[in-house]
Amino acid sequence: MGPSPHHVLSARIEAAEVAHLGSAVTTYASLCPNEGAEALYVSGGVAGYFGPTISLSRAVGLGMHGPVTAADLDALEAFYDERAMGVSLHVSALADDSLLPLLAARGFVLLHLDSVLVRTLDDSCLATAPGETDDQGSIEIGVRVAEAAEAKTWVRTSLAGFADADAPPPGNERHAAIYEACFTVPSTQYFFASSSGGFAGAGALDIQGRTAQFFAASTLASSRGIGVQSALLRSRLAHARRADCDLAFVRTAAGSTSQRNAERCGFRLAYARAAMSRPARTRAVVPSRS
Predict the structure, then answer these.
(1) Pairing mode of beta strands 38-42, 211-219
(2) What are the residues whose beta carbons fall under 8 Å from the beta carbon of 238, sequence distance 6 or more?
(3) Residue 238: its pLDDT value, please?
(4) Could you give the CA distance from residue 237 to residue 130 in angstroms, rounded to a whole number?
(5) Above 50 in pLDDT, residue 129?
(6) pLDDT of residue 162
C-alpha cells in the first residue's frame, strides 16, 4: 500500500520548506562567508545554522521519506553540538513513526504545536493582484512587491510588526543582517502593505516548483485590526497563481488570529507540526590536580 494522500501532501510541503531553508543558508553563507552559516542534509530534511541565537538555526523535513535512524540523529546532534548550541527541529505529524521515539530517548521536548494550513490555487486567486488595493470599508490597504534596494526597510518594517504594541521594535543588528541577506534568496519575494500613506505591514512568499509558502507576515501596531493581513494574503495568493503555483501553505500558531485570517482566505488545516528542542550540551569542568 502506498502513502496516504495526507502524507503525500505533507511530504510536498516539507520538501518546499527544506528547499527554502537550504537556499537561505547558501545565500547567507555566500554574502557573509565569515559567519559560519552551513547546512546539513540528513534523513530527507535539512539542518540549518545561521548563528547560535538565530531562530532560523533549526532542522526541518526529517522522516518524510522513510525511517529515521540513530545514525541520522547522531549526525544532527553533532552538527549543532560542534557549534555549541541546542538542537531545534520542526516535525510533521505525518513523519515516519521512527522519529518521535528516537527524539524522546535523547531528551527532546515538545515546545509547541503549529498548524500547517493549505489551499489550492486557481484563477479565482487573481481577483486582487499585488499592487492593487483592497477596500476595507473606509480604509484602503495597498500591497506591492518590495524592490531589491528596500531590504533594510522591509526588515525594519517586518521586525517592528512583530513587536508588542507598547514595546519598541526589536533592535538586534545581527538578526537584521541575516534577514537582509536572505532578502536576495532567488525563490523568495517580499511585500509591503500600506495604509494612509505609510507602511502598515509586511509579508513574504517563497516559491518552490508549483508550491508557494507564505511566511514572515506582520502588522505594525498602529495598523492592526483593519485587514492588513487579509490584504497581504490575497495579494500573495494572486502572485503565486501568476507564477503557476497550484498549492499554497502557511504555518501559524495553533488557534491564533493568523490561523483565522488564513481560514478566511480559503486555507484549511492540513496537519500539525511539532516544534521540539534539546538544550545545548555543556562539557564538565575537570578540577585541576595541581
Answers:
(1) unpaired
(2) 125, 126, 127, 128, 129, 130
(3) 96
(4) 9
(5) no
(6) 86
Strand partners, 219: 201
Task: Please tell me the distance from the alpha carbon of residue 79 to that of residue 56, in angstroms, as a whole number.
Answer: 15
Q: Decide: residue 153, CB within 10 A, 0-12 exposed, 13-18 middle, 19+ buried.
A: middle
Strand-pair category, 188-195 with 139-145:
antiparallel
Give SS3 for 47: strand
Contacts of 63 (CB under 8 A, 6+ apart): 43, 44, 45, 91, 92, 95, 96, 98, 99
pLDDT at 132: 43
**Mean predicted lDDT score pLDDT of the chain:** 90
What are the CA-CA distances from residue 241 to residues 11, 121, 122 (Å)? 21, 6, 7
Q: Three cell numbers at 121?
A: 490555487
C-alpha to C-alpha distance for 99 and 62, rounded to whole angstroms: 8
pLDDT at 176: 83
Instruction: Give yes or no for a contact between 184 and 31, defined as CB atoms under 8 angstroms apart.
Output: yes
Please tell me the distance from the alpha carbon of residue 89 to that of residue 108, in angstroms, as a whole number. Answer: 10
**Domains of the chain, CATH where assigned:** 5-115+274-278 (no CATH), 122-245 (3.40.630.30)
Confidence of residue 284 (pLDDT cuts 50, 70, 90): very low
Three cell numbers written together for 63: 522522516
Cell numbers linked to 18 = 527544506
Q: Which band of pLDDT confidence, cut at 50, 70 and 90, is reported for residue 1?
A: low
- Find the farthest-apart pair of alpha carbons in the chain and give their distance in angstroms, rounded: 78
Cβ–Cβ < 8 Å for 239, 273? no
- Sheet bearing 87-92, strands edge to edge: 38-42, 45-49, 59-60, 87-92, 268-278, 109-120, 247-253, 211-219, 198-208, 188-195, 139-145, 133-136
Q: What is the pLDDT of residue 4?
A: 92
